[in-house]
Every structure is written in structure tokens, then in C-alpha cells.
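pasting for ref
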Amino acid sequence: MSKNSSGFAVRSLIALAVASAFPLHAALATEAGADAQSAAAEGQDAAAATTAPRSAGGQLETVIVTAQRRAENIKDVPMSIATVKGDKLDVLTSGAADIRFLSGRSPSVSIESDYGRTFPRFYIRGLGNTDFDLNASQPVGLVMDDIVMENAMLKGFPVFDVDQIEVLRGPQGTLFGRNSPAGVIKFDSAKPVFKQEGYLQVGLGNYSAKTVEGMFNMPVSDTVALRVSGTSQHRGNRVDNTNPSGKGTQEFEGYGDQAIRLQALVQPNKDLSALFNYHARDYHGNATLFRANIIKKGTNDLVDGFDYDSYPSDGINHQNLKTKGGSIRLKYNAGDVTFNSITGYEKLDFYSRADVDGGYGAVYAPPYGPGFIPFAVETADVLPNHKQFSQELRAESNYSGPLQWIGGLFFFNEKIQIDSVSFETFDAGNPQRANYAVQFQDTKSYAAFGSLNYTVSDKLKVRGGVRYTNDKKEFAASRVQTDGRTNFNIDNTSHNVSWDLSGTYELNKSTNLFARVATGYRAPSMQGRLDDLTSQPSFAGAEKAVSYEAGIKQDLFEKRARLSASVFQYRMKDKQLTAGNGSVNMNQLINADKVTGQGVELDFQANLSDGFSMTAGYSYNHTEIKDPNLYVKYCGNVLNNPTGASGCTRLDPDGAVAGLSLIDGNPLPRAPKSQFNITLKYSTAIGDGEFYAYTDWAYRSSYNFFLYEAKEYKAKPLTEGGVRAGYKWGNGKYEVAAFGRNITDRQVIVGAIDFDNLTGMLNEPRTWGGTFKVNF
């Protein structure tokens, strides 16, 4: 889909939906009454504003966000921002979907993983990181209950009892800091309240899926409230090992995923509060299935006769992840100034083992298959030691007046140990080899930040902020082998000043215009998955971003509809990229001289009538690598297999030497140009209850898997849809529902491994099931 045709389709759809829902005179009606209602809505309490999807007269709720560390009407925040909550969030998480459910469900957002339900990789406006190493940083920050989740293994925490998800697009280098030049995704759990309430939901689905989710909130006294919530998600195996030797793990893609969150709110008076949070996760299952030779050479099609339910392998495949953490959030209102202290601690233990070659046997150890297997690769990545501590101290003005301010200090410390081991696939029991690699990384970051908001007039408000960051990394990598050992140490200290400047202009009571220029920064990265005694760690220096955006936020049809539209352009200097080694299972960090991006984003929401409501979103992102001297290795199997029996069909110009490919002018990997999503809900009263039906659809265009371009390594466009229908009765106390995800059962290749043999990874198959929920 081209940029022009996609944009025209979206505009036509929105216009048709709105025009069919409202008579012409509604668009021309006076807005005096709506203006009064808007002013009243904007003054209400943030918690109350998010309790109901509609207000009187079918108006949309006022959406309150904390993107600027204050509770504000989303219309007044001068940046491109979207939220997911309520019915839409319930539908998208149907069937115990992991955090990847957000991919494509908000403009410019993509999420993928080479590890399955763990290690999600986030992209906003095309900016992400394909690095699969366990200390990989990402340019998209994930903040959960005000705590930054730095390691990717912390970012896949199950989504349950969540009040709201905020997607902040563009650099967030001032208030959120390092490693957020692409944006921030912010999760806010439902907090304890001073009334007794709860819910219990159970679900069943295909593939023997079983889910239980629940919450109980209880006031202990007038000053203390407790909230406990949790989820237990299980699915049976759905893929069988068809290796004729009967060796290796025999069944795949089942899992068990349990998580819990305990919260205690202590509020002795209206000026002082303390919120304690403990959370933990215990996951076991399989690593992603790397399927050898499933891509038809010269195309990006699946091979003829491909069977999703079979996977011939001679390796062992299993994955375990345990995380636990806690936070203390203190807030004290001292009259004109409010003080905040946010302390967080996270710890995890991870083990993931997989048959990376994607088949069984090898050309030197027949029989082998499916297709050409040049060598056996069976590896495990282990995080036996991980600790993260963060502390933020923040003060903010709390008085009336044209000038408001925020200032604070931030400290972050993370310690990581990573073990990379391999196995002798052809020996009895697949024993671990004596040779292995180990990495240690100690990161300390200090920051000071501040921002000012100034009301110039009744129409114009301006904001500005600045943040100074000092990052220090101590990195050590070793390769231990029976014939020797290598040791490398890399210490690096970097400094950065990030800033932003933005403004909001009230064109009228229903329309705000905004503009923003912002910078962002990602700290230097190191990798040391050493393959042998001669290999060395790789290093990528800090990347810096500057972004420009402008847009409009508008309430329509007496607040029955809402539109947000923005255009943006950014430039990344020294962009950190991850190149596959080409012939071994390793990453190499590199810096591109420059990367540019530009595009548009649209968010639309409407109550079409008493029974119908909808949301829609669209984004177009054009990214380009600009470095005439940047080359990467490609199609490693071409070098390993000179006959080219399973080599890829490269499209880029040759590099200076054989096996190198020039990537200047290529788009960023895993970055679809066009994305479109739409939801439609119908509800009506039946008997003593309410029947509802909800459908959601997301489309994304194709993208490259890697930095270089090849016919085989380009994802096909993908459209996935979901549906949920249910009935609520007993004043909302009871609910029964049926759901389906990927209801058309599209099967496409969404990722690949290029060092071996046209090895691909697939999207999730169709799932369906039912749930029963009781509120009390």
C-alpha cells in the first residue's frame, strides 16, 4: 500500500463513518454547550474521569494522562500520544495474549520477539533494536508503575489489572531520560482504593488453554488499603517433533505463566501518601521455534507443503524466566510544592535453550533435514545474575499561577552476568560443551532534570525542559575453552544534555494546535558473545536524536468524537545498529553516521450512536540509513555453502570484499512503513443485561528482517483480526464472553536467522475460547 493510497483510504473511512453516524446539522451546531461541558470535565478528578467510557449525551470521556509527570487532559499535552484502556484493552488481551498484543494497535508501534513470550523488542516510528543479546538496550523505554524496566526480560510482564497504557511517541529525553530517543510506553496498574471490590475471571480455549485472573481490593482502615491481583495462564503444546530419530524435545509451544502484584496504599492524611508495590513472575515454556528452510528460495513465500504443526528437530528446547521486584512511591504535599520519591528494585533469572539450526542432523552427519543443514547449532543464553536499582527524587510546583515547574534527580544501577553456552547435539543426551562465553556489565547512571510550563495567555502555553545525564559502564567479556581463555575489558563514561521545547495554542474550545522539538539519547552499548579465542567484543557509541513534530487535537460533534493528527521528522546521529555476523550466531554492534525518519500519525475515536462506537489509527513511517561507507555481512550460508543451495537472494550492491553488502539508503529493519488499526463495538440492552460485540483489525505493510535487503528476508504485509462477543447481567456483576484472535488464521514469516539456511519464525496461529467473569 502506498503512502498516498493508505492516507486516502483512512481519510475516506473516517469521513464515511462520521458522516453516516451524524446528520449534517450536528457538524454545524453551536458549541457553546459543549464548551461549558469541556471546562467542567477538565476540572474533574483524574481518577473519576477514567471510570466510564461515556458521559451524558454519548460524549467521550475525558482522557487523563501523566506523560509530563502531571495529571493532564490528553488534549493539552503537546506531543503525539495515545492511550489503550477499558474495553479495548480487555479485548486485545483476550486469550492471555502477551505484551505483543500492542503491536500495530497504536500508530507507529511495533513489537516482536525472537524469544517468544519473553524478550519483547519495541519499535516506535521505525526506531528499535534487533539485538538478541541479553544486555541489549532499546531506544523505546518501558515504564511500569513509574519504574523504568531496562532489561528486555523485564518488559514482558503479563498485562492484568492495568488501568491505562500510554504511548508517548518521539524522544522523551527530559522527564524519562536515557534510552528513550524513540519514545516511551507507560503502564499504570490500577491502584488500591478505599472500598472493597474485586473480580475473578476464568477462561478456556483451544490448545488446552486455561487462564485465571483475579483482583481483590480491601480497605484495612481509614488510612490503609490493600490490593492483590494476579494471573495464571497455561497452554498445551501444539507442535510435534517429526524428526524420524525421535531425538530431542518432542512437543513445543506450550507454556505456563504466573504473575502476581501486591500493593499497599498508606494515606494518613490528604497531604501524605505511600504506595508499596511487590510483583513477581514465573514463566516456563519453549523458546521460539527457528524453522529451517521454510522460505522458498527467490521469494518470501512459505515452502510448498509447509505444516505449522510439525517441527523436525534433534535439539532440546525449553525456557524459564523468574522475575521479582518492588517499589516505594512516596508523595508529600507541602503546600506550594509537592515532593515525590520513587524507589525501585528488580531482579530476574533467565534460561533459554533452543535448536538454532532449525532442523536435525547436518551434511556431515546424515540423515539431515528439512532441506540443507550445513551444521548443527544448539545454544543456551543464561542470565544467572541480574539486579536493577533506581531512585528518583522529584519536586513540582503546586500553586496557581502562570509558571509551573518540575525538578529532580535520578540514579540507576544495573548489574548483569550473561552466560552463552552450546551443546553437542550429536552426542547422547546433548551434553554441554566445555567451551563457553561469559559477560559482566555494571551500569551506573546519574541525572538531573527540570522543566517549566508557562501560560503566556488564555490561548498559548509553552513548555521547556532539560536533563543532564552521566552514564558509566564497566564491561568484561571472556571466552573459556579447553585450549585457553581470552579476557576483554571495556570501560566507558558518556555525558549528555537532552532538552525539549513545545507549545499548545487553543484555536477554539474544541481545537488545540501543538508543536514540539525534542532531543533524545541512548547510552553506549557493548556485546561480547565471543565465538572463539580470536573473536572480540563489539562497541557502539552513544546515539543522539532530534525530532520535530506538529499536530492538532480536536473534539468533534459535541465531544462525541475526537481526532489527533501529527506530522514528524527526526534525525539520528551515530545510530546504533545490530548486524548479524553472517556466518556464526553472533551480533556485531555498529554506528550508522545518520538515520532519518518522517511520517504522519492519526488517532480517531467516536461514539457513532447509542449502540456503536469505534476507534481508528493510522501511521506512515519512512526511515532511511544514510552512511555511504557502511557495509554488513549477508546470507552467511552462502559462504558456508558455496553451491548456494539455500542461500538468499540479496538486492543490495556489493561491498568492498566478498560477503559484504552496502546498506546506505536502506530502511531500518522491522520497521513497516504503513500501519492501520480499527475497532468497532456494538452494544444493546437485552433482558436485564447488555449484549456487546467487538471486533478489532490491524494491518501493517512489509519490512526487512535485516539491515540488508533480500527477497527471502522481507516480511509479507499482514492483516490480523480479532473478535469478542459477550453478555453482562446483574448490573455488570456477571459477564460471559467468547473470543477469537487472528481469526483468519494468516500464517506469515515475521522473523528470520540469516547465518544458517533460510530459517524463519512465524506469527501466532488462530486462537479462540471463552471466559466467565464475576465482579464483587
